Amino acid sequence: MAQRAAIRHASTIALVAALVCVVAGCGQSAEEKYASSVCSDIADWRDQVQKSANEVKAKVQSPETGMLAAIDADVQEAVDATDELASNLSSTNPPDTDEGRQAQQQLDALVSQIRTTVNNVRETVDSIPQGASFSEMVQKLAPLAPTIKSLAVNTSSTLASVKQAGSKIKDGFDNADSCKKLEKSAD
Fold first, then answer.
1. Do 39 and 178 touch, CB atoms closer than 8 A?
2. Verdict on whether the full-model pTM lies above 0.90
3. Cβ pair 125, 44 in contact under 8 A
4. Using 50, 70 and 90 to split pLDDT, how confident is the model at 9?
5. Nearest-CA neighbor of 107 among 160, 28, 31?
6. Per-residue model confidence as pLDDT tens digits over 112-164
7. What is the distance between the alpha carbons of residues 171 and 176, in angstroms, rounded to a whole number?
8. DSSP-assigned letters across all residues of 14-79
């Protein structure tokens, strides 16, 4: 009986240890942990920006009263998502290697580019006077959806460049589940 209880106890400890290891990311390299965090943050951001872009496009294609306020709200969601992405990426520590530092520099440049684009979109929306006609609004707003969607393309290009920082970083991005999901969703 005591032997059976000891075996059960040992099995329980092994199961708990395995679960802790899965949750904590045991066996992942620093590069894979970094890549996983980066890809998760980018996927969340991209989903929100694509949603905002689709909503702007739909509203511009079917103009109605209150359209400008609704588009303003969609743009604000993209701005908020961009701010969150920037905060998350800057607080994610890259591996303490030359590859990690190079990868982080590229991601910092991406965040700067994204912020500039989103701020330009915000300025475009803000520049439309309250009493503007539908045709004036559509003329100014029509280019916004493709501009916002282009950010996702730039993000994919940057991630491809980040992988070129070195073989360990590339392996980290290739092996991270969140990066695999991000690549599949981009197709």
1. yes
2. no
3. no
4. low
5. 160
6. 988 888 888 889 888 888 888 888 887 887 787 678 777 777 888 888 888 88
7. 8
8. HHHHHHHHHHHTTT--HHHHHHHHHHHHHHHHHHHHHHHHHHHHHHHHS--TTHHHHHHHHHHHHH
